[in-house]
Amino acid sequence: MAAISFPLEEIYQLIKSVMLSNGCDEPNAVALADIMTRAERDGSHSHGLFRVPGYVKALRSGKVDGKAKPKVEKITPAIIKVNGHGCFAPIAQSVGLPALVEATKEIGIGALTLTGIHHFAALWPETEYLADNGLVGIACTAYMPSVAPAGSKTALFGTNPISFAWPRPGGTPIVYDMATASMALGDVQIALRDGRKVPEGTGLNAKGEPSTDPAEIIKGVLLPFGGYKGSAISLMVELLAAGLTGEQFSYEAKENDNGDGGPPRGGEIVLSMSPDIIAGSEWQQHVEKFANKMSAMEGVRLPGARRHKNRLDIGTRKIDSALLKTIRELGTSNT
Ligand code: NDP
Ligand code: PYC
Hints:
Elements: E1 3-7, H1 8-20, H2 26-42, H3 52-60, E2 71-76, E3 79-88, H4 89-107, E4 109-118, H5 124-132, E5 136-141, E6 162-166, E7 174-178, H6 185-193, E8 203-204, E9 210-211, H7 214-219, E10 221-222, H8 227-243, H9 250-255, E11 266-273, H10 275-278, H11 283-295, H12 305-312, E12 316-320, H13 321-332
The chain binds NADPH dihydro-nicotinamide-adenine-dinucleotide phosphate (NDP) and pyrrole-2-carboxylate.
């Protein structure tokens, strides 16, 4: 891939200006610029600048309201509900997560449901926010049918990510964030762009045969990670993100989507727990011993460590030059 080096601050300003010139107000543009710049900073390439064209498509088609003002409601002392009123997810999270932290610190456990949102980002920002506030976090969201349940060759599940974070006061949290598909669709699309094959087991072509060609898999179907076990976790994500929030399952999201290429309307659930309240004051020492034992093992690293290391580099990031050209054009033309 031909790449251009670009400073993080310029990445932020570019995204913000593209979003402002495509119908976002300042708070929505800031929330999007923040989430995508942090993805580029950490090396979450499939959910950084790569997503700008999709966000813009959803704004231009009118599917997403770039001026939406999400509404927060406390259903019980532990249950927070945010209605995004057709916004992209980051602005809804920015109002819901602080309320979730406050509730969890009081009750010990909490749940945040987000409805009427369009999620197109990585999920680690949600769970890491909770860990940075001393809480354990779990987040998941559904998407549109892209993954065949175990035993089938037809898509029903979204790529259905799940993220988990555990706080390590004084250090970086333990965080994993993974699609329950064998590979996130964004990474398959990037493999196609960069002319790379994907590993065996990623997906099937349109005839239902195994393939390592990303173009063929995009026309066919992705497989869940880990066979029937990943399939069960993807099923759980559908139930938590749609069944429990009252929002659309992936198949419903597709049926009701306008096909503009941007993220469909859906739901997200974020669960949080206070180790201080649940485990008591000794938890940190106990967990540190375990984490240190694990990371000292040969060949082992803790999930999240790659991103946290990338984050220490505040220099430029390499951006695909064709993508950069496309994004710059999206900021000047509005058709
Ligand atoms: P990866 O397979 O790249 O990584 C999954 C997790 O495994 C990460 O937490 C990663 O940590 C960790 N990990 C990777 N290698 C190792 C290792 N050797 N040892 C220990 N831990 C490791 O992610 P996916 O491709 O599955 O997902 C990419 C992104 O796509 C996610 O951010 C996800 O939220 C997003 N996504 C969003 C969707 C949406 O609907 N909004 C749908 C699907 C995916 P580390 O980061 O430190 O490498
Ligand atoms: O990479 O699978 C993906 C994805 C879907 C929605 C946002 N990212």
